[in-house]
């Protein structure tokens, strides 16, 4: 039997693409051969247009089935779990905003890198040799509204044939993301970093985001401590002991980069924290698709950093609606690396005004630390399960005494 060749993971491929882009960009600049950079920019333009075409499909494919699926479950327990998960996501995003606003200006030079008009500005990044227009079938907000209406409609009417259709459509979109967009992403990232190196902005970005990543991981740790402190107070348990029990789930998530793939380990670790099997087996799989506190911290922080680098004003009135929408659009993001950021592309474009170059940089930056964001997500799922278990037990005691 032939041995199967081990595939290189997405993160190593992205690192190779970034390194190669920097090297080729430096060679092109020294030899004064912009054509080398423009070849990559041509691919970037075509891929970027295709990505824009896919964004409405991704939104409908992910959000509509995710909302529809929330209509099935254990009634009040489902609603309460979903509400707590959403609140946790909002707290994580708001916390990230406050920390970013306080710390980023200390090391980030506002307005130092202009990607706002990067596709057309000759003094920043080169444009491609040609482009192929691929207009999306609808706008981002239209896609979001359609997804909400259809998802809620299916949940209320329990229309099984329509639900089956949208889950089939979700499968197609997931295949598109996993088999086309994600594999081509390293080439796209290569082109962007090659172009940024030629324009002389890449070292600034690399040095800035190394510091941003450290801050993000510290925030991940702090939000986990917060979640388990709340759960520990409610359940009268030691939060540090519960976090220790969740370490296998955290490490598994780092390896798989998928909340869905980590569900069996998350459930097992949650049971070790004294959560009943009924609650653990219900809450953990549900939260794997609707609770993304770690991903929210990463997306909020990376988007704020990019906005500040471009010299944009970053205000709570601008970012809070984005965080509110982020908690919804990431529902049922696919269990593939980068699923959350792919689902968030639409609101990054429509609500924050990101262009193709900025969206590409967001994807690269998010995936570079996706493992840690996912690990934060699944660890937080265990805290919600502990909280739900304590609430359920108190309700059961009240029912018995009445």
What does this structure look like?
- This protein is mainly alpha-helical and 402 residues long.
- The protein has one domain (10-395): Proton glutamate symport protein, CATH 1.10.3860.
- Helix content is 77%, strand content 0%.
- The protein has 15 helices and no strands.
- The chain is globular, with a radius of gyration of 22 Å.
- Residues 116-123 have low confidence and may be disordered.
> Can you tell me the overall shape?
globular
Strand content: under 5%
Number of domains: 1
Main beta sheet strand tally, sense and closure: none
First-to-last CA distance: 67 Å
Q: What is Rg? A: 22 Å
Number of strands: 0
Number of contiguous helices: 15
Order of helices and strands: HHHHHHHHHHHHHHH
Q: Tags for this entry?
A:
402 residues, mainly alpha, Proton glutamate symport protein, 15 helices
Write the layout of secondary structure elements.
Elements: H1 10-30, H2 34-69, H3 76-107, H4 140-157, H5 160-199, H6 202-235, H7 239-245, H8 247-256, H9 263-272, H10 277-290, H11 293-309, H12 316-329, H13 339-350, H14 356-368, H15 370-401
Summarize this, please?
By secondary structure, the protein is mainly alpha-helical. It has 15 helices and no strands.
């Amino acid at each position: 039997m032939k041995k199967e060749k081990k595939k290189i993971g997405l993160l190593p491929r992205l690192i190779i693409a970034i390194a190669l882009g920097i090297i080729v960009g430096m060679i092109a600049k020294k030899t004064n051969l912009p054509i080398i950079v423009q070849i990559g920019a041509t691919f970037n333009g075509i891929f970027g247009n295709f990505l824009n075409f896919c964004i409405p499909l991704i939104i409908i494919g992910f959000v509509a089935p995710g909302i529809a699926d929330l209509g099935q479950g254990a009634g009040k327990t489902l609603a309460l779990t979903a509400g707590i998960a959403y609140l946790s996501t909002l707290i994580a995003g708001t916390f990230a905003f406050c920390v970013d606003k306080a710390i980023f200006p200390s090391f980030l030079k506002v307005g130092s890198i202009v990607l706002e008009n990067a596709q057309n500005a000759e003094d920043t990044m080169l444009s491609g040799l040609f482009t192929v227009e691929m207009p999306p079938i609808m706008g981002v907000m239209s896609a979001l509204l359609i997804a909400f209406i259809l998802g809620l409609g299916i949940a209320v009417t329990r229309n099984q044939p329509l639900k089956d259709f949208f889950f089939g459509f979700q499968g197609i979109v997931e295949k598109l993301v996993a088999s086309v967009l994600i594999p081509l992403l390293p080439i796209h990232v290569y082109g962007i970093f090659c172009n940024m190196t030629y324009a002389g902005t890449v070292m600034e970005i690399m040095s800035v985001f190394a510091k941003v990543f450290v801050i993000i991981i510290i925030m991940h740790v702090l939000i986990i401590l917060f979640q388990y402190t709340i759960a520990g107070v409610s359940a009268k348990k030691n939060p540090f002991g519960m976090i220790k029990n969740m370490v296998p789930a955290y490490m598994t998530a780092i390896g798989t980069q998928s909340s869905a793939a980590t569900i069996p380990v998350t459930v097992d670790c949650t049971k070790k924290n004294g959560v009943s099997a009924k609650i653990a087996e219900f809450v953990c799989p549900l939260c794997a698709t609707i609770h993304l506190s770690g991903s929210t911290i990463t997306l909020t922080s990376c988007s704020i950093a990019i906005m500040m680098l471009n010299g944009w004003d970053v205000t709570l009135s601008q970012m809070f609606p984005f965080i509110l929408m982020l908690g919804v659009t990431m529902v049922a993001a696919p269990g593939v690396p980068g699923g959350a950021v792919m689902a968030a592309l639409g609101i990054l474009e429509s609500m924050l005004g990101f262009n193709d170059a900025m969206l590409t940089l967001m994807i690269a930056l998010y995936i570079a630390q996706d493992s840690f964001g996912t690990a934060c997500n699944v660890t937080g799922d265990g805290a919600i399960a502990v909280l739900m278990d304590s609430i359920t037990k108190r309700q059961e005691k009240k029912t018995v005494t009445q």
